[in-house]
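Backbone-to-sequence.
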């Protein structure tokens, strides 16, 4: 088994920005014991020659004993402390000419490698790598450079993405190598940063637990019914600030969506009733079935009969902490990192937030949020 890749600054930055909000679901506290077994990391990574996939589960980041202490020492900080239990997140990034400058992967399982990892530890390693590159001065020009797999290059075919990235790498004179290797007898995902002039040489090793390739089937995204309502938001109209304010007032938030392009966020209690209105959103009628955006996390939808009904409405009751946790990417990722985001509402089943990265062919990530059951008499729209 072998995996080794090269990354430029902007690739490390993209991976870090993606992992920061997802790591808040698991909350850390996971790790690898001396026997090599996982301690509830809650995150599994899949690698093959084409893609890198991340599957994370909320509230699975640590096992806490009866005294409230993490098994790794200190207090537990798993996702359950932040109300994230039950949330699933699935991300996919293109490997070839995408998140890596170049890479090589070999395994007896058709060149597929699957492993558990503590996402908080990986986030820390990536953050330290970025800081080291920034302090060395190598990151300044990289921050201004676009991702090498740009949509313009892909459409115009003027040059290959790999050729573009290789040219950029030589001009920036630094390199980040990500690879699987053993450290202290344990398998680790290693990040090695270096500069051509020798001014930088930083190494990180994050313990992993290697799984059989077949075990990835246990970490696929949930299969859900076709959304009753699916609305695309403009990037300059984030949901997070509104949700944060409502979260401080009520433990649950009601969302009333309509395929006319309207969404209402509301809370109702004995002391206060608040409504926040969004209009002129973009209804997405058929995109979940025509192959766009990877069919919303690999096409796991059923029963598309009612999609052409523009008057279709849906009401969901969601824990405010869970909703807030799935929108943290709006604070950690710059607007230029995201191409679009779509809110999908499945009555009495699931809320799905699907985010497409920029450029669109780099990848996406999708949150699956459980909802409270509501009887028909509770579903009064608005």
């Amino acid at each position: 088994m072998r995996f080794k890749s090269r990354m430029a600054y902007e690739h490390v930055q993209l991976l870090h920005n993606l992992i920061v909000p997802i790591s808040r679901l698991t909350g850390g506290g996971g790790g690898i014991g001396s026997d090599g077994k996982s301690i509830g990391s809650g995150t599994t990574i899949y690698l093959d020659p084409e893609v890198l996939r991340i599957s994370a589960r909320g509230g699975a980041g640590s096992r806490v004993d009866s005294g409230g202490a993490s098994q790794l020492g200190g207090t537990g900080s798993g996702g359950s402390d932040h109300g994230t239990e039950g949330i699933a997140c699935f991300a996919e990034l293109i490997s070839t000419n995408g998140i890596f400058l170049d890479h090589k992967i070999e395994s007896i399982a058709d060149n597929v490698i699957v492993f558990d990892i503590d996402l908080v530890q990986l986030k820390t390693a990536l953050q330290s790598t970025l800081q080291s590159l920034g302090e060395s001065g190598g990151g300044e020009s990289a921050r201004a450079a676009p991702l090498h797999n740009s949509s313009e290059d892909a459409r115009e075919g003027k040059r290959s993405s790999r050729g573009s990235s290789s040219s950029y790498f030589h001009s920036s004179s630094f390199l980040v190598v990500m690879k699987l290797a053993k450290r202290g007898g344990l398998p680790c995902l290693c990040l090695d940063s270096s500069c051509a002039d020798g001014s930088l040489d930083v190494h990180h090793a994050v313990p992993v637990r290697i799984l059989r390739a077949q075990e990835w089937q246990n970490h696929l995204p949930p299969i859900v019914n076709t959304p009753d309502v699916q609305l695309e938001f403009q990037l300059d109209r984030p949901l997070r600030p509104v949700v944060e304010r409502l979260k401080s007032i009520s433990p649950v938030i009601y969302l009333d969506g309509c395929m006319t392009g309207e969404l209402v966020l509301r809370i109702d209690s004995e002391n206060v009733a608040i409504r926040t209105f969004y209009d002129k959103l973009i209804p997405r009628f058929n995109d979940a079935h025509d192959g766009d955006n990877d069919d919303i996390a690999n096409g796991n939808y059923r029963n598309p009969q009612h999609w052409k009904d523009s008057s279709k409405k849906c009401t969901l009751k969601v824990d405010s902490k869970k909703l807030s946790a799935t929108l943290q990417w709006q604070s950690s990722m710059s607007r230029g990192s995201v191409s679009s985001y779509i809110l999908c509402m499945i009555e009495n089943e699931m809320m799905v937030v699907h985010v497409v990265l920029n450029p669109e062919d780099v990848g996406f990530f999708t949150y699956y949020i459980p909802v409270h059951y509501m009887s028909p008499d509770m579903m009064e729209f608005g």
